[in-house]
Amino acid sequence: MSLIGREITVLGAGIGGLTVARALAMRGASVRVLEQAPAITEVGAGLQISPNGGVVLEALGLGKDFERISVASQGAVLRDYARGSEVLRMDLTRYGRFGLVHRADLIDLLADAAREVGVEIELGVHIASVHLNSRNPVLFVDGREPERVEFLVAADGLQSRLRMALLGDEAPAFTGQVAWRALVPIEAGSVPNKAQVFMGRGKHLVVYPLRGGTLLNIVGVQEQAGWIEDGWNHPGDRVAFQGIFGDFGDPVRGWLERVQDVMVWGLFKHGVARQWHGTNAVLLGDAAHPTLPFLAQGACMALEDAWVLADILDRGEETAASLHAYESLRLPRTRRIVEAATANARNFHLRSSPVRLLAHTGLRVIGRAAPGLMPDRFEWLYSHDVTKQ
After folding, report:
1. Were both Cys, which of 98, 284, 285, 320 would link to 302 (CB 3.0–4.6 Å)?
2. For residue 360, what pLDDT band results from cuts at 50, 70 and 90?
3. Whole-angstrom Cα distance, residue 197 to residue 86?
4. pLDDT tens readout for residues 109-129
5. For this structure, is 208 an active site residue?
6. What is the reported pTM?
């Protein structure tokens, strides 16, 4: 189907929703984004946008703007939690630019970029449910009459209303992991422009600089038996956070002492959706394939999805065939990424001291003997360019 003049409704003004809105509008569609939050505010913390996501921003004409708001990463370093000693250093810059960015800054950029091409963004719109029939999706919106829409893109995350309509009311499962996040002001240049992962017993902590190197993003993940609260923006107890990671040595200990405010959330997930689309309706991003944050690919998968979906819909094929092609292209790659992220969670949290010592020693030997070997393992991930498919 040609997108010129088509009316498309997008659920969710997150990274995936705003990106697909701009991509569709640039191809001639009339796009409206519905977001349940009352305002697009500074929520969340750091994101890593690897080259496979960066190429999408570049293709959408946002490359220079993204460079302006992000810190160029020099790679990743895995470290032992107790001493902070280096286990493995990976130079990933061969694949292109890795941008370390505050989520709020990227959302602001994408929202402005969407509005620039005529996208309408409606805030404070709560979708109670989505109903599918043989022709057009129907939105049941709190405080409004039901609304039939021409075409629906659901980028509304883990609790996606369209996913429920397609697959039933499946409850996301708690992964047994809880994440903490904090932002600490730092002196520019005092922390390397790298993602550093400190690996401990049943927990790990990731740090990297944001906003010109003046802010340190800290994310700690611990294994925990249970979690009840929904959502990912709950105020946490600073003292509890410091205590949980109190056995970590310097430099982590020094950073934790400076934490003032901390947020905490339980990590939940579905499996990759077994069905991504219905009649004139399709899933995108976390709504289709929620992933754990241990490969830093959640945002990048949404960026990739957005480009592929807009590109396929614009090719003039029949809608159902286009949606089938989109799912067929994206399913194998997103499933592989989700599985790799899950494996990283296990590898970062080795509890047995002998096993951890053996694993870390092996990584150190590999890093010294063949420094390019581990980075080579990620070529399938970072070299992928959906804009050239």
Report:
1. 285
2. confident
3. 10
4. 999 999 999 999 999 999 999
5. yes
6. 0.94
